[in-house]
Amino acid sequence: MLLDITLRSLLVSGSATLLAMLWSIPIALTISMREFTGKRVVKSVFNALLGMPTVALGLILFMLFASRGLLGPLHLLYTPTGIIIGQAILITPIIVSFTTSALESVDPEVKDLTRTLGASERQTSFAILGEAKKGATLAIIAAFNRAIAELGVAMMIGGNIYGYTQVLTTKISTGVTMGETVLCLELTAILLAIVFSLTLAMNLLRRD
Amino acid sequence: MLEELVAVCREYDGVPVIKRLSMKVREGRVLSIIGPNGAGKTTLLRMMALLDKPTEGEIYYRGTKVDNSSVNAIRGKVTMVFQRTVNFNKTVYKNVAYGPELKKMSESEIKRRVVKALGLVDMKKFADRRAKKLSGGEQQRLAIARALVLEPELLLLDEPTANLDPKNTLEIERIINGIKGRTTVVIATNNPFQAGRLSDRIACLLDGRLIGEGTPKEIIDRPMDARIKKFVRGELIR
To answer: Is B146 in CB contact (< 8 Å) with chain A?
Structure first.
């Protein structure tokens, strides 16, 4: 049971992180490398969304995914896919904001340098991302940690269905009320071990 | 004629920096652009490197007008080394290999070129070092190697010895003398004597305008223009 819940948590939050990266990194590249009207507003919105309460997002998504909701026909409510989408949305501001900061700290002349060496716009973007890889990696680790440790979305969208959508945080939350204290402590230890080991790796990376 | 600028102007935020300047870069020669700080040397080099478009005027490369459709084909043939050295956070080898890798050259060709370029700047022994750990002079030599590895037709050097001590300055000048004749070089410098030591021709820029062009003898030893004479003497000019 421990292994099953742990693996599901890693799979769901890992998938959410990969999904969020798909759109967050291009958004961060666009914000950092292009000049457009409202750029500061867009950055401020992503920064403000860093503190988005998970229950608030969970409620919004619940209403969207419910059978009579806008996305009801997709049958995402009470599915692992639903949790993955919810967590991906939750962590998008983390990846966008932190990666944007990392990209903006890269020497602006790197862009000119790659252009003089014959790089296309896409190759230039990759080169700048390569220069910011430490900051971008930190953003991704922080986002994964946020996803695996959150409860609101997993509970409201997943529904804590045993063997299907039950993850570490939802099991800990419900297990306590059911008197499964020892199991909850074991699951908490696993969750903390995952988060702390990744935070430790993040700190080692930052020092390197 | 390798590159020709015809009546180019460049403005930044409405402020004119280059004013109707025309200039020819002859193949295989070393041309120095001298002038005081703020004369527009870097802006001129950036236009020559096709990094910035002229606000007005035309640039021709090998007789073909440079426009959006031709610029990508020319990039890589024209490389620039910036005044403030910028290097990738990689090893020296990977820094130099970046350009050939972009051009999808074979591994053996990349290795051959990188070894040759590092040899030209006497940096073969630094191949596995992180670029960011090098000294200022070494970083500048690395930047030159990264530009030379593409075997460019035109190499643009913006103040290549600014902020370097005399030993490193001599080393950079040795490198430039070493590539003389093999590639066309344009150097922006505010040191007329360095321009005299390295160049076949010297162009003098003041306030965005070309105020004289000639051989080192004509510009440094027997300047006709009073402003050039003053600049060469190290006096303030306006």
So the answer is: yes
Decide which of 3.40.50.10420, 3.90.78.10, 1.10.357.10, 3.40.50.300 is the CATH code for B3-82+154-233. Answer: 3.40.50.300
Chain B's closest residue to A109, CA to CA, is B86
B145: tokens are 């190697």
Could you report the per-residue pLDDT of A38-96, keeping only the tens digit for each? Answer: 999 999 999 999 999 999 999 999 999 999 999 999 999 999 999 999 999 999 999 99
Helix or strand run (H / E) with residue B64:
strand B64-65
The total number of structural domains in chain A stands at: 1
pLDDT tens per residue, range A88-131 = 999 999 999 999 999 999 998 899 999 999 898 899 999 999 99
Task: Put residue B35 in one of left, alpha, beta given phi > 0 → left and psi -120 to 50 → alpha.
Answer: left
Q: What is the CATH number of the domain that holds A135?
A: 1.10.3720.10
- The nearest CA of chain A is from the CA of B49 a distance in Å of 7
Chain A residues in contact with B76 (beta carbon < 8 A): 117-118
Q: Do B150 and A118 touch (CB under 8 A)?
A: yes
H-assigned helices in chain A: 2-33, 39-48, 54-65, 80-104, 109-116, 121-131, 133-149, 152-153, 168-177, 181-207
Q: Do A118 and B102 touch (CB under 8 A)?
A: yes
Q: What is the pTM of this model?
A: 0.82
User: B 84-103 residues with CB below 8 A of A?
Assistant: 84, 86, 88-89, 98-99, 102-103
Domain extents in chain B: 3-82+154-233
pLDDT above 70 covers a percentage of chain B that reads 99
Select from B147, B150, B143, B140 the least CA-distant residue to B170: B140
Give residue A44's domain range.
Answer: 2-207
Residues in chain B, overall count? 238
Positive/negative CA dihedral, A159, A165, A169, A175? positive
